[in-house]
Amino acid sequence: MNTKRQTVWLVSMLSLMVVLSAYYLFTEDLDSGSGSLTADTVQQTELQDGVEVSEGPAGADWLAESEAQNGKGTGALTDEEVLKGLETMGAETGGDEFEKYLYARNEEFQKEMDRLMGIVSDTKHDDTEATAALEELDKLEQMEEKLTSIEMELQNSFSKVAIAEENGTYKVLVESEQLERSEAADIINKVTDTMEVPASQVSVQYIP
């Protein structure tokens, strides 16, 4: 069984390398983009025909919701605290909102991968737990591949794209001077079809 686990572990690590390679290639494209975000952009949320489109500094409302739900910690940084730290870093250094969201998602992805790989490689866990962890690993890799695929496809229309995911809810950020409702609807349809979630769990935010 140990040999089998080692083989599965190697296969999983190879899959992780492929996913991370795609991620870094994608972020290199973002680095080549021009323009920076202004801190005083006023957020405007518009709900029409069931399509949610918002303009403003990406992440302000998303982070506020996370921080409001964040309880007392035990010393380890929570996902919400990581995002809060990234927001502070952006305010101090003028960091790109898109890069921050991609970085935060990648950090969460790697953390969950490490947790699941730890279960698979630890002989203290029985075969049932190891099998369940492998199934979760497969789902996690598929989700990340789908999100990266959506982002790369949307880059055909927008210079910068990032998708933030939290508890099955997706927020799509695109760089655009203006976003028509029809464009937002197309983006939402793309996410709902690919991720197999209802439209109520997807929102779109554009940043000039």
UniProtKB/TrEMBL annotation:
Pfam families: SpoIIIAH. Residues 130-160 form a coiled coil. Keywords: Coiled coil, Membrane, Transmembrane, Transmembrane helix. InterPro entries: SpoIIIAH, SpoIIIAH_sf. It comes from the Bacteria. The chain crosses the membrane at residues 7-26. This is SpoIIIAH-like family protein. It comes from Paenibacillus sambharensis.
